[in-house]
# Entry
Amino acid sequence: MKTILLLAALSLAATSYATSTGSPFYGDPPDDHHPWCVHDWNRPQPPRVEPGPAKPCPPPEGAVVLFDGTEATLDKWEADQEGHIATKWVVHDGAMECVPKSGYVRTKEHFGDCQLHAEWAAPTNVEDESQGRGNSGIFLDGVVEIQVLDNYNNPTYADGFACAVYGVAPPLANALRVPGKFQQVDITFRRPIYKDGKYLYPGYVTVYCNGVLVQDKTQLEGPGGHRVRSKLGPLPERGPIRLQDHGNPVRFRNIWCQPLPPRGHETGIHGPLSAEATAAKRKEIAAMVRADAAKITAHPTIQMLRFAESLVYEKDELTFQKVEQMAGQYVAAIKQLPADKFAGAKDNVKSIARVFQYLAKNNIIPTGFPPKADLDGIIKAQGWDKEK
# Structure
């Protein structure tokens, strides 16, 4: 009797409260780091945000055009199955349209970290509800799905909402236009980095829908999925862009992909590095600066400064001795200037002195560096230190 009452209560709840938003006891349950079930019907719906007017978004220089509305670019896609089989999707009014039950499509070219732009439209004829209405998906690296769904006036479980990282993170907002209108999505994708089985750097996706931020550098633990929780694990280094056939004639247009440059931890250009990586990068920069300095033979003062600059990145005794020698020669040349030329050297002398002050302040040269002491003496004797 209790079992019958429980089932009746669940049935009533599903009917009266969340018919469109999912079912209990469906996806993986909460765990130590995730308070919601996967596809949890209790998870709040994204708030409605009205998007601005649609504007064309042409591909930038260097982007790979994957579909521009022509049959020629449809040839860049194939059926998502073994054997490189031509897709059954069709081009209609400048859009690539899913032929239901024909299967997913994928790009022949593979991509890793990338910026992807795509525009999609759900059918104008509104049918069904929840996951049955205008359903498709955009898969990055072949495995991470950004949900495509007609949620204009159609609730569903929040982590399966349009622009959700499917099964992982609901969008921050519902910024969809009405069914039949094209939705513009811009996705920045970075895969998680592993080395020797060790998790080093997180992956993430950032998504804009119709100009509204809907995924804000959402961290990727691994691939998402239906009913199962995403788990830590490496993703392919490169994979196809895949579009889902979920039984609805969803249309896509203006698809382009811009491969992204290496991340900061790979180049050292952006972001903090480990102590070991920092030391290696500084050594590399110092070598580059010294090599450049060696070429500046026609301008001894500039060459001296460039060699001194290399010491900021790496202490090197031979380079320090070279800087000291060249600085001594510079000071000697200043002291030998005739009186009518001396005043004209003021700005140059003060600028070189500031360089030595910086280097001494940061313990790159000794405080008592003789050329520094000589220049400080000249500046004080001429009264240049009193000038503002």
About this structure: Residues 1-18 have pLDDT under 50 and may be disordered. The first strand starts at residue 64 and ends at 67.
